[in-house]
């Protein structure tokens, strides 16, 4: 089995800024596959996303989003950078199991709109050696827009939950 594919497949997501994610208003749910062929592509996409850990950047994106908020800056001002970061990191880690599966499913739905099951299996098995890599390169921007559109609400919900909990706990600890 080949080593994990590097950030090549998550590149479209890295291009998105945290501010853009917060301004997007998109549906919380993605469309379900319409046919057996679509279901097969979706299943292959989900396997690809999970095995290659394509969605592993969710916590990093959430941290970036949180760091741009007034709430976080207030926490830093009151508690200091390292203590504020500890609260945020703890809450992000606690909320991740709730949001990572939805994030992965959304990524899979996006990939399945652009690639067949065979193509996704080739990318998963062969990595950068796959004959599908040139197609991936061609559709990166469009795939990135799709992922951003479909994943924005998950990122917002994840960051909001974690930041709210971090703020509340830091305020509770400060009141003691």
Concise summary:
With 176 residues, the protein is mainly alpha-helical.
What structural class should be given to the helix and strand makeup?
mainly alpha
The rounded distance between the terminal residues' Cα atoms is: 53 Å
Assign an overall shape. Answer: elongated
Number of contiguous helices = 8
Low-confidence region ranges: 1-34
Average pLDDT over all residues: 83
Radius of gyration, taken over Cα atoms and rounded to an integer in Å:
18 Å
The tally of domains stands at 1
Number of β-strand runs: 0
Task: Give the biggest sheet.
Answer: none
Show the helix and strand layout.
Elements: H1 11-15, H2 18-23, H3 36-51, H4 58-67, H5 70-79, H6 81-114, H7 117-126, H8 133-175
Q: Can you give a write-up of this model?
A:
- The chain is mostly helical.
- The protein has one domain.
- The protein contains 8 helices and no strands.
- Helix 4 crosses helix 6 and helix 6 runs antiparallel to helix 8.
- The longest helix is centred in the C-terminal third of the chain and has 43 residues.
- This is DUF2059 domain-containing protein.
- It comes from Achromobacter marplatensis.
- Keywords: Signal.
Please supply descriptive tags for the structure shown above:
about 180 residues, DUF2059 domain-containing protein, about 75% helix, single chain, 8 helices, signal
